[in-house]
Design goal:
- The structure holds 2 protein chains of 2 kinds.
- Chain A is an alpha+beta fold.
- Helices cover 41% and strands 18% of the residues of chain A.
- Chain A folds into 2 domains: 119 residues, NADH:ubiquinone oxidoreductase Nqo5 subunit (Beta Polymerase, domain 2, 2-Layer Sandwich); 308 residues, Cytochrome-c3 Hydrogenase, chain B (Orthogonal Bundle).
- A 5-stranded mixed beta sheet of chain A has the order 1-2-5-4-3. A 3-stranded antiparallel beta sheet of chain A has the order 8-9-10.
- In chain A, helix 7 packs antiparallel against helix 8 and helix 8 packs antiparallel against helix 9.
- In chain B, the strands form 4 sheets. Chain B has a 5-stranded parallel beta sheet with strand order 7-6-8-10-12, with helices on both faces. Chain B has a 3-stranded antiparallel beta sheet with strand order 2-3-5, with no helix packed on it. A two-stranded antiparallel ribbon of chain B has the order 1-4.
- In chain B, helix 5 packs antiparallel against helix 6 and helix 6 crosses helix 7.
- The chains are: A alpha+beta, B alpha/beta.
- Chains A and B meet through helix 5, helix 6, helix 9 and helix 10 of A and helix 1, strand 6, helix 8 and helix 9 of B.
């Protein structure tokens, strides 16, 4: 087994402790260790990896293998940042008794993902603190869309069953404020129910999955080249990140390494995506506390980036660039000059914008101590990306398990511990500055050569994990290939799914008028969550 | 305060003159695919690489099979894969693609071929759809009557209603944006309309917080099963006269998601639509073009230009 030296001691320890209960261990990639264990062992294995080895529960997902093996498989994906690798624990669940012991009490980060498995696969959760529906709304009939015997194009009867019952919050002077799914701004749909006493929020209930589009099921129906375009449409503001993560998974399944130039160009695109989103968010946070001037400057800078995106790849959101095996378009000298010019110009103008925001005491007044997410809660909920790093949760796939060109460039990962809106604002600002440095280094070191390697039909029955640190946080695509260049399963893990519960925690004790700015400081994708 | 002022003055005016000047789009931008119908023999290679099924092959046994083929801009995500697969297709950077009819987004071989004639809706079907769906048929009937010179009663009523809508809404329009299931790509670009670069308020057009204040719904996304009711309620809450603009490949046709257990597909399967803006996502110029087209301001602007 070709396993990373840093993962070896962990494997040795686990096999020593659990012995034959771990039935099989294999590593299709050096940093991707699979442990096939008995069903009863799931909780103990995850807890050990989570507590002792400081693993993060980055994903919980299921797969319908009833056709071949008469079981469902449930996978627990643990990211071991210090060991620079991933452990995937796989347990079988008998088809005739689809029940799973919940790990949410031990690892709260599993909460929504376990409920999603219950909804989409019909695997009952035992011992889950809140086993209500989440991915499918209450008015859906009893269907399990991700089971193989469910047809993608099924037409379900409209609006049956009960309406969603929110939890009651009672007490003198307590009232509830429902918001959504159609919001006041230009944002995606979701429902928020605030329970307030006077001004402070006592409890915030989230109801998501309004834009559930059956994306994971759809992946199973498309040939792999078409799946890349679907991956671009999981979350529009993370088109490159999702498509690249998907391509990584396909390449790892096919055993193909993209050429160096392709990896460099992908890195450029990922950083451009990070730049336009971070700058837009910085502006949007300002506008949510009525500092509109800064927002206008930020919008202007974002537009500047989007136009360079168009010049580089033909699409302002960098769509159409990704393909398994590399990238579709090369950058010529003129395009690279335009990029270099953008970085220089943007750095100057972004400094001006930073000065503007730094010098505004009204802005600081509103952002500091607003929407605090404590490091403890961040760790418990497994909060990822900028929100995690603003609450002292120090991880970044670009540094810990470098993908693409990130092992060739030097950068720092800004980590703050305050956990308030100001910290999430500052982390973005510092990451923008790092992005400039990364882009300059990539351009300076840009390797020559081909931009893609041909990728034939991907062999069937391979499993692979693709990962990318997107601007919002880590994105995982886990695939299981099927014959005919298709997929038997594609699990998409957007950072938003992990971070939504943190918003409910961060808003506690704050006033409703601060909710927009707290929400914006997380800026989570509804579409990425709901899929 | 001084710094704020200094930076604003230093920046100067950044607003585009579009639509008085052509859209500032890179030559590399992928917009409308241009098809060499004469040399396009076989549409199947291009259709095979299209991720959204925007290329529908016609009769494969016909001697020049591609001439019966349709390229549907309402489904197209402008990835350019068809242009790589077939030399007869070339991607242009043309972005002003909005149409008042869904049919208007389907590209077929030029009118002299038999295929184009077969594709055209019959006057009877036209009339039927006008009765079924009076609001969205206004533009359609206008278009067909302009093309054929007919002046039937439905068309005349439609034109009057259209004039009335334009006189009521044309000068100042309030838009309620509704995401009915999009991937948020369209939202990224719709946000751009509020930026100083596109500054939609210079047309007297505002985005408002409630459908009750709105004259137009700007709807994105394939309508998901979970958003269908919310979209209907939003539509019902919008006072008459009202316009509906479907945005993006998903809004026009369901896009790459199509119709499945979780989505109903195109916006017009749920509420009547007046204007379709293709794109994935449509760029701000394309959005402006579609919105101005919906309120009949484009002609006015063109007059100024000439």
């Amino acid at each position: 087994m070709n396993l990373l030296p840093s993962l070896r001691p962990i494997l040795d320890e686990l096999t020593q402790r659990f012995g034959a209960q771990i039935e099989h261990a294999h590593a299709p990639q050096p940093n991707e260790l699979y442990l096939h264990a008995k069903l009863e062992l799931a909780g103990a294995l995850c807890s050990t990896l989570y507590r002792k080895h400081q693993g993060r529960l980055a994903g919980v997902f299921a797969e319908d293998a009833r056709a071949g093996q008469n079981v469902f498989f449930v996978y627990y994906l643990l990211a071991l940042d210090a060991a620079h690798g991933f452990v995937l624990v796989r347990v079988p669940i008998p088809a005739d008794q689809p029940e799973l012991n919940s790990v949410t009490n031990a690892i709260p980060a599993a909460n929504w993902q376990e409920r999603e498995i219950q909804d989409l696969f019909g695997i009952r959760l035992v011992g889950h603190p809140n086993p209500r529906r989440c991915a499918l709304h209450d008015d859906w009939p009893e269907v399990y869309p991700l089971r193989k015997d469910f047809d993608l194009h099924s037409q379900l009867p409209p609006f049956m069953g009960e309406r969603h019952k929110f939890r009651e919050v009672e007490g003198e002077g307590v009232f509830q404020v429902p918001v959504g799914p159609v919001h006041a701004g230009i944002i995606e749909p979701g429902h928020f129910l605030f329970s307030v006493a006077g001004e402070p929020v006592l409890y915030l209930q989230l109801r998501m999955f309004y834009v559930h589009k059956g994306i994971e099921k759809l992946f199973e129906s498309l040939p792999i080249p078409h799946c890349v375009r679907l991956a671009e449409s999981i979350s529009g503001d993370s088109s490159v990140a999702h498509a690249t993560a998907f391509c990584h998974a396909v390449e790892r399944a096919a055993g193909v390494e993209p050429p160096p130039r392709a990896r460099a160009l992908r890195t450029i695109c990922l950083e451009l995506e990070r730049l336009y989103n971070h700058i837009a968010d910085i502006g949007a946070i300002c506008t949510d506390v009525a500092f509109v001037t800064a927002h206008m400057h930020a919008m202007r800078l974002k537009e500047r980036i989007l136009r360079v995106n168009e010049e580089l790849t033909g699409n302002r959101l960098l769509r159409g660039m990704a393909c398994p095996g590399g990238v579709r378009f090369d950058f010529d000298a003129g395009q690279l000059r335009a990029l270099a010019q953008l970085v220089d110009e943007l750095e100057r103008q972004f400094n001006d914008l930073s000065e503007l925001t730094r010098g505004n005491s009204g802005l600081r007044d509103r952002l500091e101590t607003t929407g605090v997410l404590t490091p403890k809660v961040a760790r418990d909920l497994g909060v990822v990306g900028i929100a995690g790093r603003a609450s002292g949760f120090d991880h970044d796939l670009r540094r810990d398990v470098p993908h693409d060109f990130y092992d060739q460039v030097q950068f720092t990962v800004p980590v703050l511990t305050g956990g308030d809106v100001q910290c999430r604002f500052d982390v973005r600002r510092d990451e923008v500055v790092q992005s400039f440095a990364i882009l300059r280094q990539v351009m300076a070191k840009l390797p020559a050569g081909p931009i893609a390697v041909p990728l034939g039909e991907v062999p069937a029955d391979r499993v692979a994990l693709g990962y990318v640190e997107g601007w919002r946080g880590e994105i995982f695509h886990w695939i299981h290939t099927a014959p005919g260049n298709r997929l038997a399963r594609c699990k998409v893990k957007d950072p938003s799914l992990q971070n939504w519960p943190a918003l409910s925690e961060a808003i506690l004790g704050n006033i409703i008028p601060d909710f927009p700015v707290v929400n914006k400081s997380f800026n989570l994708s509804y579409s990425g969550t709901d899929r | 305060m001084f710094e704020t002022l200094r930076q604003s003055l230093k920046t100067g005016v950044v607003t585009t003159s579009y639509p008085l000047t052509p859209p500032e789009v890179s030559l590399r931008a992928r917009g409308k695919p241009e098809i060499d119908w004469v040399n396009w023999r076989d549409a199947r290679p291009a259709a095979a690489v299209c991720p959204t099924g925007a290329i529908e092959c016609g009769d494969e046994s016909a001697p020049n099979a591609a001439r019966t083929t349709t390229l549907d801009l309402g489904k197209c995500v402008f990835c350019g894969l068809c242009a790589e697969a077939d030399m007869a297709i070339r991607m242009t950077n043309q972005c002003e693609l909005a149409s008042v009819t869904r049919e208007g987004l389907r590209l077929t071989a030029p009118a002299n071929s038999s295929a184009a004639i077969a594709n055209r809706q019959s006057p009877i079907a036209d009339r039927q759809s006008a009765i079924r769906n009076p609001q969205s048929a206004i533009n359609q009937s206008l278009l067909t009557s302009a093309a054929t010179g007919r002046t039937g009663s439905v068309e005349a009523v439609g034109r009057q209603l259209q004039d009335r809508i334009q006189s009521v809404l044309g000068r100042s329009l309030h838009i309620r944006e509704v995401d009915a299931g999009s991937c948020n790509g369209c939202e990224v670009e719709i946000h751009g309309l509020n930026s100083p670069v596109y500054d939609i308020e210079r047309f007297g057009i505002h985005f408002v917080a409630s459908p009750r204040h709105a004259d137009m719904l700007l709807v994105t996304g394939p309508v998901t099963r979970n958003m269908e009711l919310a979209l209907r309620k939003t539509y019902d809450a919008t006072p008459n006269p009202r316009l509906v603009v479907a945005v993006g490949a998903c809004g026009c046709s369901g896009g790459i998601f199509g119709r499945n257990y979780a989505t109903c597909g195109a916006v017009n399967t749920v509420i009547p639509v007046d204007v379709y803006i293709p794109g994935c996502p449509p760029i701000p110029h394309a959005l402006l073009h579609g919105i101005l087209l919906a309120i009949g301001r484009l002609k006015q602007v063109t007059v100024i230009k000439s």
